[in-house]
Design brief:
The chain is mostly helical. It contains two helices and no strands.
Length: about 70
């Protein structure tokens, strides 16, 4: 589970920080440098959020998936 969380936060954080940078600033001369700075800041924030919310999301998903269908 910890490896899953690290990889998911890595890919989501890097994708979103890159996309948001591109949407807000476009491809600037130092795009990659800004992107990496933003990505590491984002990743530091996203990891604890995922650690806290993953159990809740897992329970909600199980509840929805296992609830009887009428």
């Amino acid at each position: 589970m910890p490896m899953f969380m690290l990889l998911m936060t890595f890919f989501i954080g890097s994708s979103l920080s890159g996309i948001m940078l591109w949407m807000n600033k476009g491809f600037t001369e130092n795009f990659f440098e800004i992107w990496m700075t933003n990505f590491f800041r984002t990743w530091i924030i996203v990891i604890p959020i995922v650690i806290v919310t993953l159990p809740l999301v897992t329970r909600i998903t199980k509840f929805i998936a296992e609830s009887p269908k009428n």
